[in-house]
Amino acid sequence: AQSVAQPEDQVNVAEGNPLTVKCTYSVSGNPYLFWYVQYPNRGLQFLLKYITGDNLVKGSYGFEAEFNKSQTSFHLKKPSALVSDSALYFCAVRDSLSADRGSTLGRLYFGRGTQLTVWP
Amino acid sequence: NAGVTQTPKFQVLKTGQSMTLQCAQDMNHNSMYWYRQDPGMGLRLIYYSASEGTTDKGEVPNGYNVSRLNKREFSLRLESAAPSQTSVYFCASIISGVGTGSYEQYFGPGTRLTVT
């Protein structure tokens, strides 16, 4: 069964410091991995994705994520945090096998979310 | 493009009342989804529609029904609202089909529902 774990409910960092939001996954095939961000009272916004290729993927707002197949992880990172990065972050996974068949059994499975707070 | 739109933005219901949440997308996407978001629970899939004319249950379908009215619109109905259905509801859509598995889902702004 597909699943995503975000082991930290909250991450607190000082502005200017690097940040990491952790994500591990479990899928039966090759994973398609996604990060979304949610600002207060808003919907989810897509940040970045890993499908294939380079293990380090770059996304919006200076975020990047590193795919590690052996550790089944896809941690979100940013070299220098901003106060405006404070938000709720969700990791999601989609099974490539069902996704490539075009079935919506390739649905997204979400983690529970990590609240990132960046203080000035 | 407006993307994914949802109405209403806020709603308060009394236990036992019914209502329909509306969702529409203008991106010509095949598949549409309804999620609910509760604190500490992430997003849980209620129902989805692979294509016009098809709907399937997700993780938490009890107490809900859906209608895929056409390719653009996917509505979620609460027939007899219960306090346990107090939540934020999100609609999402995605292109689906062979070779499109790498596409991300697009989300609407959400509907905040309170059932008293």
How would you characterize the overall build of this protein?
The complex is a heterodimer of chains A (120) and B (116). Chain A has 120 residues and is mainly beta. Chain A is built from one helix and twelve strands; from the N terminus they run ββββββββββαββ. Chain A has one helix spanning 96-100, and strands spanning 3-5, 10-14, 19-21, 24-26, 31-38, 44-50, 56-58, 64-68, 73-78, 87-95, 109-110, 114-119. In chain A, the strands form three sheets. In chain A, strands 2, 5, 6, 10, 11 and 12 form a six-stranded mixed β-sheet that branches. Chain A has a four-stranded antiparallel β-sheet with strand order 3-9-8-7, with no helix packed on it. A two-stranded antiparallel sheet of chain A has the order 1-4. Chain A is globular and about 40 Å long. The N and C termini of chain A lie far apart (41 Å). Chain B has 116 residues and is mainly β. Helix content of chain B is 0%, strand content 50%. Chain B contains no helices and eleven strands. In chain B, the strands form two sheets. In chain B, strands 2, 4, 5, 6, 9, 10 and 11 form a seven-stranded mixed β-sheet that branches. Chain B has a four-stranded antiparallel β-sheet with strand order 1-3-8-7, with no helix packed on it. Chain B is globular and about 45 Å long. The mean pLDDT of chain B is 91. Classes of the chains: A mainly beta (120), B mainly beta (116). Chain A binds chain B through residues 9, 32, 34, 36, 41-46, 49, 51, 90, 94, 96, 99-104, 106-108, 110-113, and chain B through 4, 31, 33, 40-43, 45, 48-50, 56, 58, 90, 92, 96-102, 104-110.
Write the layout of secondary structure elements.
The complex is a heterodimer of chains A (120) and B (116).
Chain A: E1 3-5, E2 10-14, E3 19-21, E4 24-26, E5 31-38, E6 44-50, E7 56-58, E8 64-68, E9 73-78, E10 87-95, H1 96-100, E11 109-110, E12 114-119
Parallel strand pairs in A: 2-12
Antiparallel strand pairs in A: 1-4, 3-9, 5-6, 5-10, 7-8, 8-9, 10-11, 10-12
Chain B: E1 4-7, E2 10-13, E3 19-25, E4 31-38, E5 42-49, E6 56-57, E7 64-68, E8 74-78, E9 87-94, E10 106-107, E11 111-115
Parallel strand pairs in B: 2-11
Antiparallel strand pairs in B: 1-3, 3-8, 4-5, 4-9, 5-6, 7-8, 9-10, 9-11
